[in-house]
Structure formats: C-alpha cells, structure tokens
Amino acid sequence: MMLTGMHVAIIGGDARQLEVIRKLVELDAKLSLVGFDQLAHHFTGAVKLPIDEVDFPDLDAIILPVHGTTLDGKVNSVFAQEPIPFTEEIVKRTAQRCTIYSGISNSYLDELVRKTERKHVQLFARDDVAIYNSIPTAEGTVMMVIQHTDFTIHGSRVAVLGLGRVGMTVARTFAALGAKVKVGARRSEHLARITEMGLVPFHLNDLEKEVRDIDVCINTIPHLIVTASVIAKMPAHTLIIDLASKPGGTDFRYAEKRGVKAILAPGLPGIVAPKTAGQIIANVLAQLLYEDWQKREENKR
Ligand code: NAP
C-alpha cells in the first residue's frame, strides 16, 4: 500500500498529527504542512508553508486536527503562533475531488462543507476509531481515579454507566485491576453482555438504588444521567469521573454543593497517550486515503 503521487495538506493540530505526518511520509504521499513552522523536525517529502502558498487545485485531501475548526473558522495548531484561517474561499480553490478529514465536526465546519460541496469524513464517528480510542481512554480513567482517591482500585466498588464502546473497555479494565464492577445499561442485550463479562448488571431505572454502596462512578452516557437525586444517594466519598462529551452527564453544580468530587475528563487519549492516539488516527487515515486513491487511479484507466 503506497500513496505515491497523492497530495495531502495537513493543517494545524497537536502531537497526534506528527504520527499522521510520519505515516503518510512513509507511504510516499506529497505533503504540504500548514501551521507547523515552530516544529523543528524536518520530514523528507513534506514541505512547511503558509496557507496562501498551498497549491490548492492539486490537493487530493485536507487533514484538519481532531477538533476540526473553531466556531469562527480557524484551525488551531500547537506548532504555530497564530490560528490558521480555514474559509469557504480557501476550500473553493480545491478541486471537487478533495476530501476533508477531521476527528469531529461543528456547525462552522458542517456549513463550510455543505456550501462548498466537498466530502467530509469525521474519523471519530467510525466504530473502529472509537473502539481503539477507548483503550487510552480507559487508561486515562485509571490515572484519574488513582490521582483523586486515597484507596486502591483493587477491591473498590465501581459503577460504570453505559455499555457503549468506552463503557465496555472501562468496565473490563477496572475489573481486571480487581475492582468490584457493576455496569448500568437500559438495553436487555447490554445487561446480558454485562453478565457474560462476569460483571454485575443493573438497569438504569434503578440507578438511585444502585449508587448507595459505591466508591467510584464512571459515566460514559452523553445525557444528564447522574442527576441531583442520584448524587444525593451516593456515599459522600464517592468519586464521579464523567467521560461523556461536553457538558457530560452529571449535575456538577449539585455535586459541588453536596461536596461530592465530580470531574469532567474529556480528551483523555490525546492527554495520556498522544503517540498511540496519533497512530490510531494515522492508520485509519492511511487506509481511507489509499481506498480513495485507488478508486481515482481505476477511474483514470
Ligand atoms: P457509544 O458507543 O455510543 O455509547 C454510549 C452509551 O450510552 C450507549 O451504551 C448508549 O446506550 C448509552 N446512552 C446514550 N444515551 C442514553 C440515554 N439517554 N439513556 C441511557 N443510556 C444512554 O459511545 P462511546 O464511544 O462509548 O462514547 C461515550 C461518550 O464518551 C461519548 O460522549 C464520547 O464522545 C465520549 N468519549 C470521551 C472520551 C474521553 O477522553 N473522555 C474518549 C472517547 C469518547 P443505548 O445503546 O441504550 O443507547
């Protein structure tokens, strides 16, 4: 699998993007790097340049950071002093075939791709990426729990809420460390799977009752679930780690009022394992770019 001749612009990002650059250089793609001026490292086959010097009509793909753009149309880079503008005018200079990649999207980026009619791929919406990412997420959760408790994970009573891609990995990881793990879900097939995993299942309807005897509550449900009345039933020493995307699923105001420690912990993969998190993105991206490139080569024939 090679990407020889494919022209890709990588605009902004953090340490994770270095893994993407490394991988695409290895696959022999032609890279234009925008917003990497403060990066001392030089990659052969990759050129650092300002956004207005990119050969846009020649581009096959644009890779944005995990967060895509800001809501006012800029791309952040930890390797540049200033954010990079990413406007309709810029995207319109690319050929129709140019695909835009990011981890997640927002209203600005959605609107931009709609107006310019370019294909946009959100990598974090993919099941494979979410499952791979759940590994550093679970490790980051272990780190948070260690940092914020004075007891071992081993032997502690942990409630995990949600058996999605993150919930399953987190439940398994804490169980492997010797915690007594129960998992709350609402679908009967999830309750069956929790039982199969050797963990204790409970229905989310019984959440208030089930939190009476726990030490740690880990939420993965992006919906207000750890409500004031749930928090009121928890022992006062309970630690709540909320992994769900902002604003989380916890009534943080009430938790603070009651003196229950509750922490919203977003973006753990990029914090605890930027290299692995970058490799996860790089591997999937390489595969997607290759499929795209192959299709184009076939069409030429
Ligand atoms: P997922 O696979 O979609 O799982 C979400 C789970 O929440 C599902 O089991 C779903 O159950 C349940 N759920 C959703 N809405 C519910 C509701 N109203 N009531 C009860 N249950 C509900 O998602 P995921 O990949 O595990 O990700 C979970 C969250 O973690 C997301 O917000 C994601 O952005 C975030 N995340 C955070 C980090 C971090 O570093 N903190 C890392 C990765 C992901 P049903 O199947 O019954 O709907």
From TrEMBL:
SUPFAM superfamilies (UniProt xref): NAD(P)-binding Rossmann-fold domains
EC numbers for this chain: 1.3.1.-
Keyword ATP-binding attributed: no
Alanine dehydrogenase/pyridine nucleotide transhydrogenase NAD(H)-binding domain mapped to chain residues: 143-290
Domain Dipicolinate synthase subunit A N-terminal: 7-123
Pfam families reported in the protein's UniProt record: AlaDh_PNT_C (PF01262), DpaA_N (PF16924)
One Gene Ontology MF term: oxidoreductase activity
InterPro entries tied to this protein: AlaDH/PNT_NAD(H)-bd, Dipicolinic_acid_synth_A, DpaA_N, NAD(P)-bd_dom_sf
UniProt feature coiled coil, ranges: none
Keywords for the protein's UniProt record, in alphabetical order: Oxidoreductase
Uppermost EC category: oxidoreductase
Domain of life the protein comes from: Bacteria
Tagged with keyword Transport: no
Protein name according to UniProt: Dipicolinate synthase subunit A
Organism: Geobacillus icigianus
